[in-house]
Amino acid sequence: MTNLFIRKLELRASLSEADRHALEQATAKVMQVEANRDLIAQADAPEHAFVILEGFACRYKLLPDGGRSIVAYLIPGDGCDLHASILPRMVHSIGTLTPCLVARIPYQTIKELAAYHPNIYKALWWSVLVDEAILLEWLVGVGRRPADKQVAHFLCEMMVRLQAVGLVAENSYRLPITQSELADTAGLSHVHVNRVLQDLRKERLIEQKRRGLLILDIERLKTFAGFVADYLHLNTGGGHQGFYEPLTDVAKLQLKARQGEQDQTGSA
Amino acid sequence: MTNLFIRKLELRASLSEADRHALEQATAKVMQVEANRDLIAQADAPEHAFVILEGFACRYKLLPDGGRSIVAYLIPGDGCDLHASILPRMVHSIGTLTPCLVARIPYQTIKELAAYHPNIYKALWWSVLVDEAILLEWLVGVGRRPADKQVAHFLCEMMVRLQAVGLVAENSYRLPITQSELADTAGLSHVHVNRVLQDLRKERLIEQKRRGLLILDIERLKTFAGFVADYLHLNTGGGHQGFYEPLTDVAKLQLKARQGEQDQTGSA
DNA sequence: CGCCATCTTGACAATAGTCAAGTCGGGTGG
DNA sequence: CCACCCGACTTGACTATTGTCAAGATGGCG
Fold first, then answer.
1. Contact positions of strand C to protein Cβ (< 7 A)
2. Which CATH number do you get for residue A54?
3. Same domain (yes/no): A6, A116
4. pLDDT by residue (tens digit) across B110-162?
5. Total domain count for chain B?
6. By C-alpha distance, which of B135, B68, B147 is closest to A139?
7. Cα of B138 to nearest chain A Cα, Å
8. Whether residue A55 is found in the same domain as residue A166
């Protein structure tokens, strides 16, 4: 079974056998991390990129009042801040929510993957943009949606994302997070989250059993939340259509540029 | 006087004379756009990249209820979605808030700039990451900060950003947006924004006069808002320090990769 | 001079937060 | 094997912030 990181990238660009092999090599060095550990801490200069192979993690910011705000979820197959090394230090942290199996990848390897494998580079860019789109959707949601719809929207989003990596069966998925964590995500108090979840259960939209979540009526839940999956860019064909592929082009142009230099200097 | 796009990029990477020349060429084709016009509309397949040379624009999302949520401000010197072409369609719009002078750049040109000018590529990446950092900060703010601090925080952020491109004089800057737009930004009702601004004036933190904003006590305002400018990555040295420069490296590696291919095929 | 967008005000309602006191349930150690 | 413990969840009463509605003031611009 291929790992979920590769599976996820294949949704965004078609990968060759060589691409896949390179990715397998890059993610071969895995480590087990317990729950509630920081992979990268705020104000660090990041040293490694990480890919989550199993478990849930999140990007979060610590607040002046001691609380925390969760700004993104990392699910199996997600890389975290693969590109973070461009900025000198982190302004947020990455922490595990559950025990995780993660691959630690030196930035050097990321660079090499990007350089030798245009398809991988393209898939990574795609991921960055989708992450940003999710952020936008959250920003809109936190500001404008009432608490119940906001929570429902989040549940829909997680379902679609988990579905894309095969972690949803029969409208049901494990959501191994506490109500407090959900509160830190939605910008609500944990008390209010509790009440909202009760309402969703009463409406027979969801069912909960020990960290598992059962979606009883996904269509009704999506309607209720006003959820439209566009922004996740999952069903738009990924790398399998003929749309613009800037990174491949950039690679070609960079080659041409360097060749031009060489012609002038006449070296080898 | 160099244009502000170049000035802004120079904060992020040191540019050579050739880099600057290429950027000047790329942004030579300018157009005047009136206020409240879309540069790119939601659901479009983007066709051109834009750079704002004068005026204010924003990224916004239309809401199901007909309202809109402003998720980012574009100030002079900012590019908008220079990389948007990777995703097949926009999930948000770009619109002007004031009359703007914009440069329209074909994606092809962006690709060429990125390919032939590693420093420019690096600066563009830097911009993408800073934009994302701003988004994170907003997400936290909308969720957790009370309305008055949220508005104050926004005013601090705009001041620092405008300062970086020389548009702040004597703690004073023009903020040419309506209270309704500010409300769409902060996720508040326009009525409440009005009251919050009145409070800030009563506290003698700011003064307003026809679309101009005067910061009376920037230190007190920052303290009040809990504003810390880290996340804008403005004073961290930009391209003038010896930290990691992945894009330059990627260019080099890509060259090596292609040369390897050529060696094998033996083609000229 | 008058129009229209913008801003302002007041009264009231609704959403969500806070505080404080339980309950529940799984895991640990005796 | 059972009791206890602790984190997670639940509940109720009360408060605070913010939204909504509706009406009116202001002020630049034609």
1. 5-11, 15-20, 26
2. 2.60.120.10
3. yes
4. 988 988 898 998 898 889 899 999 999 999 999 999 999 999 999 999 999 99
5. 2
6. B135
7. 7
8. no
